[in-house]
Write a structure and sequence with these properties.
Number of strands: 17
CATH architecture of the largest domain: Alpha-Beta Barrel
Strand content: 15-25%
Distance between the termini: 30 Å
CATH class of the largest domain: Alpha Beta
Strand order of the largest sheet: 9-10-8-7-6-5-4-1-11
Number of helices: 15
Helix content: 25-40%
CATH superfamily of the largest domain: Aldolase class I
CATH topology of the largest domain: TIM Barrel
Shape: globular
Bound molecules: iron/sulfur cluster
Structural class: alpha/beta
Number of domains: 2
Length: 372
């Protein structure tokens, strides 16, 4: 594909847009069973395999990482999932191959797929009231069953937890974290519920106030640290060696191709090319073209700042100057001096945010990006 820098690793993201039902808070594009037409899943699978084959016809090395996300990849069924994986892994195993799946779809057959070495499961909470508020399809017992099976499987896994849900107590969020840890999740994504316009949740409830939200974050972050999880990205925590390699590619603005409705790609290095597949399932199945744009060096730098500042590693100044051909310190010195010094750590090799900085991430990004 034109624009790929062949000297750099390439990752593959495959987006599965199907879900059993629509969660009350979800504003992502996804197609619940009630909205699917006969044959949609089969046609989606054919079209996705064709796209992967076109890509592997041109890129003849194993992908650095592969991530199948959604939606809920569990809706594809085993055979289709394996066919997609066969196509994606034709040149060899990636360093990491993750599949998302919703708890109600996890079973021994799914966990026996050799190609998948990491699983990401959206348990969201172990509390029935919280799950009902969120409008999740899975129940507490589905979550317990999923975590038990994952624990027995020996696969690496992530558990997603949503917090700051109206009516939730601080202790519930901490119990959710403890439960995921007790089943051996090496990685936990812990993030606040967002109220997206037009969702059923937003029309019937109001969010918790900002202080309460900060209370959920501070308490959750401390509990995760006490359990040995390192806070390596604003919403992501990992035991040693359990970081998600695929997500690191996004945060470092590395190269990745996204296949599937609405999936995004970023390829190239100094001036990245940004691509997006058509969002709705009909356009995708019919093979319509998505959109694409070659970013300027400034836009590429802004993207990089926005993603790299999300991580505890922050901005590696050597990588920065080799990519953007100027010195980080001289460019950002005055913007950084306008920030509260409690928000960041700045030494010779890196500029990174503290946990206080993570709390004010948008402000920091605006301050730095404002001078590009
Ligand atoms: S399973 Fe995920 S993508 Fe599907 S409706 Fe729920 S939150 Fe949205």
């Amino acid at each position: 594909m034109e624009g790929i820098d062949p000297s750099r690793p390439l990752s593959l993201y495959i987006h599965v847009p199907f879900c059993h039902s629509k969660c009350g808070y979800c504003a992502f594009y996804s197609v619940p069973e009630s909205m699917q037409c006969a044959g949609d899943i089969g046609k989606y699978t054919e079209r996705t395999i064709e796209s992967i084959e076109r890509l592997t016809g041109e890129y003849d090395k194993p992908f650095h990482t592969v991530f199948i996300g959604g939606g809920n990849p569990g809706t594809l069924g085993l055979g289709r999932l394996e066919s997609i994986l066969d196509a994606a892994l034709i040149h060899g195993k990636p360093e990491e191959c993750t599949s998302e799946i919703n708890p109600e779809d996890i079973d021994e057959a799914f966990l026996s797929i050799d190609a998948i070495d990491r699983v990401s499961v959206g348990i969201q909470s172990m509390d029935g009231n919280v799950l009902r508020t969120l409008g999740r399809n899975a129940s507490v017992s589905d979550n317990i069953r999923a975590l038990s099976l994952l624990s027995e499987s020996g696969k690496r896994f992530n558990a997603d937890i949503i917090t700051a849900v109206p009516g939730e107590e601080y202790g519930t969020a901490l119990s959710d974290i403890s439960a995921a840890a007790s089943y051996g999740a090496g990685h936990i994504s812990y993030y606040c519920l967002t109220f997206e316009e037009g969702t059923p949740l937003a029309s019937r409830m109001t969010p918790v106030d900002e202080d309460t939200e900060i209370g959920f974050l501070r308490r959750g972050w401390k509990h995760l640290a006490d359990l040995g999880y390192r806070h390596y990205e604003v919403s992501n925590f990992a035991l040693p060696g359990e970081e998600c390699l695929h997500n690191k590619v996004y945060w470092e603005l590395g190269q990745y191709i996204g296949i599937g409705p609405g999936a995004e790609s970023s390829i190239g290095w100094e001036k990245a090319v940004s691509l997006r597949e058509p969002e709705d399932i009909r356009s995708y199945i019919e093979g319509r073209n998505g959109t694409g744009a070659r970013l300027t060096a400034e836009e590429t730098e802004e993207e990089y700042l926005m993603t790299a500042l999300r991580t505890s590693a922050g901005i590696d100044k050597k990588v920065y100057s080799s990519r953007f051909h100027h010195d980080f310190d001289s460019r950002y010195e005055s913007a950084i001096s306008s920030l509260d010094s409690a928000l960041y750590l700045n030494d010779e090799s890196a500029f990174r945010l503290t946990e206080d900085g993570f709390m004010l991430l948008d402000t920091v990004i605006l301050t730095l990006a404002g001078i590009i």
